[in-house]
């Protein structure tokens, strides 16, 4: 199987030359375009999440040998969260080669954080299946490297940080509301709003409701920091 010029260029940006190109093709195929003869990337996403987790756990331990578990956990979470995966995906223009069905194409699927994050995890798994753990590790460390070195020393749970922000200003704790739930039962997508007492609010999506709440809290914190 020969890759198209577009896919070959993407592999160059990724930093891995596939011996079995079918892995990267599958990793970039969203469920909206799947068929009995065209498997989607959901199983690879499951695997890639675990490979990324192992590499990042090792990376944060190595980066700060003196850190306690209570310091390492939030740093790890910041590095593996869906939003970070999506940011990395955008840096290598993954959205331009993502294979989507008409429904996702029409709703801007190439720009969606959830889709990009999932696809980035699937791509990691594709590298792992094609070249083994060391190949996947090399790709991850190259793409995530600056983030490992720059992850905030006091990285905290976003919901906790937002609550502390509100309390410091005499405000009631933020409120979280589920706005919608879409997708199949085995892979739902939650859209959640985080709102402060003054009406300031932000929304975010996640495969798990708690993940969506964290993402909404983080987005609201970012907005508050920008003024």
Would you write up a description of this structure?
This protein is mainly alpha-helical. The chain is built from 10 helices and 3 strands; from the N terminus they run αααααααααβββα. Strands 1-2-3 form a 3-stranded antiparallel sheet, with helices on one face. Helix 3 (42-63) crosses helix 8 (133-150).
Mean residue pLDDT: 89
How large is the radius of gyration?
18 Å
Strand portion:
5-15%
Low-confidence stretches: none
Largest sheet: 3 strands, antiparallel
Query: Percentage of helical residues?
Result: 55-70%
| Separate helix tally | 10
Cα end-to-end separation: 51 Å
Number of strands: 3
Keywords:
3-stranded antiparallel sheet, single chain, mainly alpha
Give a short summary of the structure.
58% of the residues lie in helices and 9% in strands. With 227 residues, the protein is mainly alpha-helical.
Q: How is this fold's topology laid out?
A:
Layout: H1 5-14, H2 22-27, H3 42-63, H4 69-80, H5 82-91, H6 102-106, H7 113-131, H8 133-150, H9 158-168, E1 175-182, E2 189-195, E3 201-206, H10 209-226
Antiparallel strand pairs: 1-2, 2-3
């Amino acid at each position: 199987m020969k890759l198209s010029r577009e896919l070959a260029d993407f592999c160059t940006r990724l930093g891995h030359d596939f011996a079995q190109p079918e892995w990267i093709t599958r990793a970039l195929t969203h469920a909206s375009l799947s068929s009995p003869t065209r498997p989607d990337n959901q199983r690879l996403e499951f695997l890639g999440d675990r490979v990324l987790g192992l590499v990042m756990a090792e990376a944060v331990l190595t980066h700060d040998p003196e850190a306690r578990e209570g310091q390492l956990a939030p740093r790890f979470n910041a590095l593996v969260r869906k939003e970070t995966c999506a940011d990395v995906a955008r840096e290598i223009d993954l959205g331009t080669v993502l294979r989507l069905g008409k429904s996702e194409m029409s709703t801007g699927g190439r720009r969606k954080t959830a889709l990009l994050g999932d696809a980035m995890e699937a791509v990691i798994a594709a590298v792992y299946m094609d070249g083994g753990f060391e190949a996947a590790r090399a790709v991850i460390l190259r793409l995530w490297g600056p983030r490992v070195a720059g992850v905030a020393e006091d990285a905290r749970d976003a919901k906790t940080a937002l609550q502390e922000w509100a309390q410091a200003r005499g405000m009631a704790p933020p409120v979280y509301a589920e706005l919608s739930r879409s997708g199949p039962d085995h892979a739902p997508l939650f859209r959640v709003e985080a709102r402060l007492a003054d009406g300031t609010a932000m929304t975010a999506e996640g495969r798990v409701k708690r993940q969506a709440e964290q993402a909404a809290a983080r987005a609201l914190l970012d907005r508050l920091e920008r003024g």
